[in-house]
Prior knowledge:
single chain; 255 residues; alpha/beta; 8 helices; 7 strands
Amino acid sequence: MFNKEKIILNHIRASKRLNKKSNNFLLSLSKILIERANLNKKNTYKILEVGARTRNLLDQLKIQNINSTLYQTIVSKNVLLDSENNIVSEIESSIFKENIFDICFCILSLNSSDRLPLAFKNIFSTLKESGKFLTVFPAEECLKEFREYFLEYFKKKSNKSFLPYLEIQTLGNLGAQSGFKNVIVDKENFNLKVFAPSDIWSFIRGIGESNYLLDREKHINKYLFLNFCKDYATAIENGDLKNNTFALNFFIGSK
């Protein structure tokens, strides 16, 4: 279903933090997840980040003065984290002993797993009793304005130009079936303001979510694509598509 090489390329690209808007967004997601974890600054935590693609979570833990040791799994040794405790591993793999982490975070990376139940169960097993798991997935309405315009423009009957999403109810059920208690799943909308069509795919690449479907459509007629960019830029100038919804589903569960 997913192209592993493309996933690795996406993570490496995001780790370079070259797109300021993308990096600031990932930094904000790290901040939101840490705040939702409701950590006590008097305590010391052993934390795991699954499928880390930047060092933003580590930076935010330091900014918020959270006493912690952070371990991060990465999909490739070429993911640039500049941190000591990182281990190359597939997102679904169980490489840690049971009951050793207080908190586990995952920022978007589980969306590229085709073995989600296994990933959730392995994360559950690594957590201590009462440990928390917090993650975030793209929601159904993510980039809906751009997606609807694109699909209508190219008269696409299938949606292989865009990544699949996990419905909010499915995410909650998955957490409960994996053993998590006190499951909370909610959606939050962010506004992505664009001034040119390229702003959208630059942002997507920058956060590491460029399409990694195995059967994605890799080629579009060049002439038609250039016309699309021109017409979409006009729509942005007219104010119709300047603001794009970037919707995400947040999950919190306790062991």
